[in-house]
Specification:
The protein is an alpha+beta fold. It is built from five helices and eleven strands, in the order E-E-H-E-E-E-E-E-E-E-H-H-H-H-E-E. It is elongated and about 80 Å long. The two termini are 45 Å apart.
Amino acid sequence: MYAKVENNQVVKANSNLASFNRAAPSWSAEQLAANGIYEVVYDHSNLKDSRFYINGAESFDFANDTVTASHGSATGKALDDVNGTDENGVELDPVVVISGVKSIEKNHIKSQANNLLHPTDWYVVRNAETATEIPANVSTYRTAVRTKANEMETAIDGAATIEAVEALFTYINTGTEENPVNARPIGEWPTL
């Protein structure tokens, strides 16, 4: 990303260097600077995971011959479902519900569990149609997936803040620096 600076103010930002001047892609860094064009340096200190936060607007600052792009403070998304309202705060039809982070994450868990169980569903169908036994390891696996999904959903429901929900999915090293073991508090899915 590049930015055009005039009178110490960023007036344009674009990833296409030629958008500033057709010849710009062939210019050296010194030539670009002489024409008020600088490569943007990103400051991600306020940028948070958009799965859990609404990030503040991006802004550009020019100082010491450097253009810096940064975000305003992030705001946590709503944890729980809410009935929708219009621009005046009037409640919409009660059927309109805006899903909160907890519902969204629990729906992801349900979807992942379904995707994990799907390849072994045929065993269940065959059992229902022909009374052929489901292999013990498949039955154990399917039970473990459903149990893990319930545990994950319970952990999500138990989180009191957006930070607590985010922490459930954040990998941390539970081992040592020499022998790292990355794990997340919500855990991992069982394997067959």
